[in-house]
Automatic annotation (TrEMBL):
InterPro entries: Poly_Biosynth_Transport, Polysacc_synth. It holds the Pfam family Polysacc_synt. This is Oligosaccharide flippase family protein. The chain crosses the membrane at residues 12-30, 42-61, 91-109, 115-136, 148-166, 172-192, 217-240, 252-274, 295-320, 332-352, 359-378, 384-406. Signal peptide: none annotated. It comes from Chryseobacterium salviniae. It is found in: Cell membrane. Keywords: Cell membrane, Membrane, Transmembrane, Transmembrane helix. Its main location: membrane.
Length: 438
């Protein structure tokens, strides 16, 4: 059906994300009415906290690993070496995570609200060690994810309806997630080894630590970028009730559904394509980016507009009248798909492919420090509304600074004539016919 790898991967990831979210949409009305806002608050708080450990173990390898491997696909020895470095480096990071998590359990009073959920989610972190996404992404071969997700989603849905019967049963939700994540990632890793003839080659410790050190700027940028969502939830926990956290995280999670369907497949699929274009020459990469910018802006603008308009209907339909407060929050953050799309385009697709890793890091660090300080004030005085507005503010600040520094560096990514619908169509056809796209 699809002749182009990038579109094929966008379609496969899109289907995967839709399926991944479709089953929760079926279970959400059932689960939300059983566990209520407080149960959601506890579950989402623990998920947000463990999310920091997940980022630590995944590090920046889905970006740096993909960029390196996608530019050396024909060198099997090099690919196996890069693959081994990523896996062994994640093992080191996992051991460090165990120590940090144990300290958190001992001294983190908030986690004591339900430490069982936190422990279950942390055990699932082993799946991040063996996550093979960077391999499939490098080879632009992501079709298998949609098939696996369909099977997983169906089984998970059945198990939730069977086991989640009373309010106290909410711990089954993270338990099923942990079991499926470990099983799937280990299976996909074994399959990738066979399909791409990969070898797990033992690597010296000093080399692994060097790799971790060299990727620190991208990693730290990703971590502080996550402050836009997870840190907001953590900070809110100090100022509002668990029930109110439930309202906020319900809106955030619904937004994540939209992002998972419309943002993640596109950004994931085009990254190796853009990276490959830049490997040919800077001019080739910049030309591709100029053609992509209008497509991204138009697409995410209408996605965000639709989210703004249909927020009341969607929240009420899925979660029920108890979550009416979540509607206003979702409307505030409805344009995050657009701002996040621009942040990804300017930062990941452009700055990183121009090897401006340090600049990307500094922009994210500065903006998120400002956002963190502002979030403390807004959350304390305006609750979840303040935290919601803070998400938008940080994204806009990042976009402004990225545009400014790209202009200073004389990297022109805007060609206004490309914004005409007719030209967009022609550019899209030319991209599809390019060698790197197929």
């Amino acid at each position: 059906m699809f002749k182009n790898k990038v579109f094929e991967n966008i379609f496969s990831l899109g289907v995967s994300q839709i399926v991944n979210m479709a089953f929760p949409f079926v279970t959400m009305p059932y689960v939300s009415r059983i566990i209520g806002p407080e149960g959601y608050g506890i579950l989402n708080y623990s998920t947000a906290f463990i999310g920091f450990f997940t980022m630590f173990v995944l590090y920046s390898f889905d970006l740096s690993g993909t960029k390196i491997i996608s530019r050396n696909l024909h060198d099997k020895e090099f690919v196996s070496k890069a693959f081994s470095e990523v896996i062994y480096s994640r093992c080191i990071l996992y051991v460090i995570s165990i120590i940090l998590f144990m300290i958190s359990l001992l001294f983190g009073k908030v986690l004591h609200k339900d430490y069982v959920v936190s422990i279950i989610l942390f055990l699932g972190l082993i799946s991040s060690v063996f996550s093979p996404q960077f391999i499939y992404q490098s080879f632009q071969d992501l079709k298998i994810f949609s098939r696996i997700t369909l099977i997983r989603g169906f089984i998970n849905m059945i198990l939730i309806f069977i086991f989640v019967r009373i309010k106290q049963d909410y711990f089954y939700i993270p338990l099923f997630t942990t079991i499926f994540n470990i099983t799937i990632n280990v299976g996909l890793l074994i399959y990738a080894k066979r399909k791409y003839s990969l070898k797990l080659i033992r690597q010296p410790l000093n080399k692994l630590f060097t790799l971790i050190l060299n990727d620190r700027f991208i990693f730290i940028s990703n971590v502080i970028g996550a402050f836009r969502t997870t840190t907001n939830t953590i900070i809110l926990g100090f100022f509002i009730s668990t029930k109110e956290i439930g309202y906020f995280t319900t809106s955030i999670n619904f937004l994540f559904v939209v992002i998972s369907i419309f943002f993640i497949p596109i950004s994931t699929a085009i990254y190796p394509f853009v990276s490959n274009a830049f490997s040919k020459s800077t001019e080739t990469g910049n030309d591709i980016v100029k053609k992509i910018v209008p497509i991204i802006i138009y697409f995410y603008f209408f996605t965000s507009l639709g989210l703004l308009v249909f927020s009341p209907f969607l929240i009420t339909l899925i979660f029920g009248n108890k979550f009416d407060e979540s509607i206003k929050i979702l409307q505030i953050i409805s344009f995050v798909p657009l701002t996040m799309g621009l942040c990804n385009l300017l930062g990941v697709q452009i700055l990183l492919n121009h090897n401006f890793d340090k600049l990307y890091f500094r922009i994210n660090l500065f903006c998120n420090i400002i956002g963190l300080i502002l979030n403390l004030f807004l959350s304390k005085h305006f609750g979840y509304y303040g935290a919601a507005w803070n998400l938008i503010f940080v994204d806009i600040l990042i976009i402004i600074l990225c545009f400014y520094f790209l202009k200073v560096l004389k990297v022109n990514i805007i060609k206004w004539s490309y914004f005409k619908p007719k030209i967009i169509k022609l550019n899209l056809i030319s991209i599809m016919k390019s060698k790197e796209f197929n």
